[in-house]
Amino acid sequence: MTNKMWTIKRCLDWTREYLGQRGDERARLSAEWLLSSVTGMSRTELYMSFDKPMDPRELDAMHAAVVRRAKGEPLQYIAGETTFRMIDVACEEGVLIPRPETELLVEEVLTYIDREVLGGAVASRARIELPWNSEVQAAREAEEKEAAADAAASDSVVEEVEGSSGEDAVARVLEVGCGTGCISLSIASERRDRVAVVATDIEPRAVDLAARNRDALGIDAKTVDIRLGNLVSPLDRETEWGTFDVLVSNPPYIPTDVMATLPHEVADFEPSLALDGGTDGLDIFRRLVSAAPFMLRKNGLLACELYEGHLDAAADLCRAAGMEDVRIVDDLTGRPRIVLARVVTPKSPNELGTSDR
């Protein structure tokens, strides 16, 4: 057995069994993912190349990867990348791994800027079909028809939309806590030349990684401007506050007492700074709600992904801050996940209270 040639199939079968015995509940997926990373083959190509021998370099790399996975390390860190919507982004220790739920957050932002900033025609041309879009398409179309009817019934709304949309319009997006950059880079990739994004993060490793992901995707630094700093502190108060159409964030939102219950591969490998949202998971969100009226234009959108049990409380915070059209969006498993709200009364920097400085 020890002298038997290691083929793709033999390595795949052995890895699946080995990881399964060590508690990996997705042992087959792990084996496929690691082998794809090591060989450069897609999962389909693996199954078409079962008899292909593996060379010593691939075997050494696979051995190291399997050892790391057996200890619980996330696949994304081992492979060094993941797919998010239509792009691939590098992943590294110290930076939060993108989640599928966040793809829906991007979809909500794109729907808003298509309809309210870029114009409805852009939405029909630019929409990218994702595997889960069929499940929400009917609801999305109904919302768009309702919004169109509302706009037609109100001259003021029509004038506002016409004033900010059109072929030359560019949507300005602010992302707070960008991590890998997956949100900002997806928005820029799917609406090229129609968006300008500023993305911030307090973690230097995240800023560096997001910049490298941006460069790898061929996105100009003027299109996605990535800055180091806490929340909105990297923005210029005089020239940038109040200029954004969207403030989007996937902030730390896990309640502190829930942190102890997180799976081993999350709790022991991903950064707690990007996970722990305080007692109720809304510590950072409260600061975003306070900042939004200063960052956004009139009718600008605040869009945040949050902990499933506290969306109602988040919506109440938005209403208490004077925001309107507050809405909660469920994720694909039916759990409340995203809060959306419009800032109808923007604030100037001069209105900033002493306690907020």
In short:
This protein is α/β, with parallel strands linked by helices and 357 residues long. The chain has helices spanning 8-21, 27-39, 43-47, 56-70, 75-79, 100-118, 120-126, 133-153, 155-164, 182-190, 204-216, 256-259, 264-267, 283-295, 311-320, and strands at residues 81-84, 87-90, 171-176, 195-201, 224-228, 244-249, 296-305, 324-330, 336-343.
**How does the overall form come out from the CA principal axes?**
elongated
User: Would you tell me the overall average pLDDT?
Assistant: 88
Parts with pLDDT < 50 across at least 5 consecutive residues: 123-129, 131-140, 151-164
Count of beta strands = 9
Q: Helical content, roughly?
A: 40-55%
What is the CATH class name of the largest domain?
Alpha Beta
Distance between the termini: 69 Å
Structural class label: alpha/beta
Order of helices and strands: HHHHHEEHHHHEHEHEEHHHEHEE
Sheet having the most strands: 7 strands, mixed
CATH topology of the largest domain: Rossmann fold
Rg (CA only): 22 Å
Please list the strands of the largest sheet in the order they lie side by side. 5-4-3-6-7-9-8
Total domains, how many? 2
Task: Give the count of helical stretches.
Answer: 15
Tell me the strand percentage band.
15-25%
CATH structural architecture of the largest domain = 3-Layer(aba) Sandwich
The CATH H-level homologous superfamily of the largest domain: Vaccinia Virus protein VP39
